């Protein structure tokens, strides 16, 4: 079973940056594609970004494209989400999640997820 632990959230001002980490434990991490979802208070959980098992073919939701960058280090069993130019609309609990996908693809829907990590809170406020 793959376990995921997300960290790196915090309270930041608009226009600043944060880097989230998702550390996996368990066998076969490099076989999993990984995604980040976020859930704002009172709203549904939505997909933010994903990366394939090999580290290529990243995907981004329109609200974050050009500001967020996803990457992974399969030696350290870690996926990162670099978030730049944060705005109040980015305030949410961010969850990392893993799924088994065909080569070169990554999960964009919750039904494609095999394992969820707990959320790390990101609050963007002046």
Low-pLDDT residue intervals, each spanning 5 or more residues: none
Share of residues in helices: under 10%
Question: What is the first-to-last residue Cα distance?
Answer: 40 Å
Strand content: over 45%
Total number of strands: 10
Give the strand line-up of the largest sheet.
2-10-9-4-5-6
Write the H/E string, N to C.
Answer: EEEEEEEEEE
Short description:
The chain has 126 residues and is mainly beta. 0% of the residues lie in helices and 49% in strands. The strands form 2 sheets. The chain has a 6-stranded mixed β-sheet with strand order 2-10-9-4-5-6, with no helix packed on it. Strands 1-3-8-7 form a 4-stranded antiparallel β-sheet, with no helix packed on it.
Would you mind describing this structure in some detail?
This protein is mainly β and 126 residues long. Helices cover 0% and strands 49% of the residues. The chain contains no helices and ten strands. The chain has strands at residues 3-7, 10-12, 18-25, 33-39, 45-51, 59-60, 68-73, 78-83, 92-99, 115-124. It has a six-stranded mixed β-sheet, with no helix packed on it. Strand 5 and strand 6 (59-60) form a beta hairpin.
Relevant terms:
126 residues; mainly beta; 6-stranded mixed β-sheet; 4-stranded antiparallel β-sheet; 0% helix; globular
Give the helix/strand layout.
Elements: E1 3-7, E2 10-12, E3 18-25, E4 33-39, E5 45-51, E6 59-60, E7 68-73, E8 78-83, E9 92-99, E10 115-124
């Amino acid at each position: 079973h793959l376990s995921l632990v997300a960290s790196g959230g915090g309270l930041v001002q608009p226009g600043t940056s944060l880097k989230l980490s998702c550390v996996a434990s368990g066998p076969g991490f490099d076989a999993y594609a990984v995604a980040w979802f976020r859930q704002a208070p009172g709203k549904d959980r939505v997909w933010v970004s994903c990366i394939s098992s090999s580290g290529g073919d990243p995907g981004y939701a329109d609200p974050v494209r050009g500001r967020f960058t996803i990457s992974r280090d399969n030696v350290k069993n870690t996926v990162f989400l670099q978030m730049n130019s944060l705005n109040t609309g980015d305030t949410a609990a961010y969850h990392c999640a893993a799924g088994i996908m065909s080569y070169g693809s990554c999960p964009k829907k919750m039904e494609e997820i095999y394992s969820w990590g707990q959320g790390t809170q990101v609050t963007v406020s002046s």
